[in-house]
Amino acid sequence: MKLLIVDGSNLLFQMFFGMPSRIIGKDGRAIQGTLGFVGALIKIIKMVEPTHITVLFDGEHDNPRAELSVEYKANRPNFTDVPDEGNPFSQLPDIYTALDCMNIPHTEIADDEADDAVASYAYTYGNDSQIVIASFDSDFFQLINENVTILRYRGDKTYLCDDAFIQDKFGITPVQYADFKALTGDSSDNIKGADKIGPKTAAALLRQFGSLQAIIEKVDKIEKSSIRESVKQYTERLQNNFRLIKLDNRAAIPFALDELEYIYNGVTTNGVLERIGLR
Predict the structure, then answer these.
(1) Distance between CA 191 and CA 127 in Å, rounded?
(2) In the chain, what is the greatest distance between 2 CA atoms, to the nearest angstrom?
(3) What is the domain partition of the chain in residue ranges?
(4) CATH number attached to the domain at 168-245
(5) CA separation (Å) from 257 to 35, 46, 49, 262?
(6) pLDDT by residue (tens digit) across 106-133?
């Protein structure tokens, strides 16, 4: 079995803002986001050759992690009053119709973030089956193991992130990635790390101590005084960061595995758009 999980919201933004120009369908509506999404999805399917597939989107609800930090993702733009031509969500209905046409199960995650549902799939099936997560969200790096990989779609420059990728890029193991990000922070999610701790220092600390909790518990063994004092000063922030970033298997899985069986039938992007009346 090979399960492909597509981070739908991530791919939507990538395609909506990455297409070269505004493209109009035959009814006069903009379709560049839908066109890009369907085209990229078909290429991803051809690359991965999954036996099972689902596309998961973030739902329109308060972010549960905001209870841990009001600053979490507070830097993200609000598209509520943005006109359709600049609003990626304006093309979601067409994307959902396209996914229905392709017989690909999809849903908006109602109570958690889509990340949490993806993680539940990885924890539930990732020890026995191959799972490919298509997303540019680096939080998924923590889920990587011998069966779970992250696909970053860039057309002909698409690449898979595995254990060796994490080791080479960060100098840590995938299971340490949440600890690493808690230490360094993440500007994309508006998470601040500890002062004076950048990627190299964070990786060195994790190689020495193993985990964020061990770093905190053995803080007096940190040789460099400025780093030692920073960990002491920001202990509470670091622990909260970890809670924000760490993915587990508590979220409900929206589809049973037997509902996700899929065989690619050769459909093309234009074929899908013609079937749903956009071309």
Answers:
(1) 30
(2) 67
(3) 2-163, 168-245
(4) 1.10.150.20
(5) 28, 20, 16, 11
(6) 999 988 889 999 999 999 999 989 999 9
pLDDT in tens, 199-214: 999 999 999 999 999 9
Sign of the CA dihedral with 34 first, then 36, 39, and 40 last: negative
**102: amino acid identity, one letter:** M
Nearest to 233 by CA among 201, 275, 194, 266: 194
Query: Minimal CA–CA distance to 189: which of 152, 249, 134, 240?
Result: 240
Condensed to tens digits (0 to 9), the pLDDT of residues 133-164 reads 999 999 999 999 999 999 999 999 999 999 99
Question: CA 230 to CA 193: how far, in whole Å?
Answer: 10
Four-point Cα dihedral 138, 238, 190, 33, nearest 10: 20
Would you give the DSSP letter of residue 71?
A: T
Specify which residues 150 forms β-bridges with.
133, 161
Global confidence as pTM? 0.93
pLDDT band at 104 (very low <50, low <70, confident <90, very high): very high
Q: Which two three-digit tokens encode residue 57? A: 């989107």
Of 8, 97, 4, the closest CA to residue 45 belongs to 4
Superfamily in which the 2-163 domain is placed by CATH: 5'-nuclease (3.40.50.1010)
Average pLDDT, the chain: 91
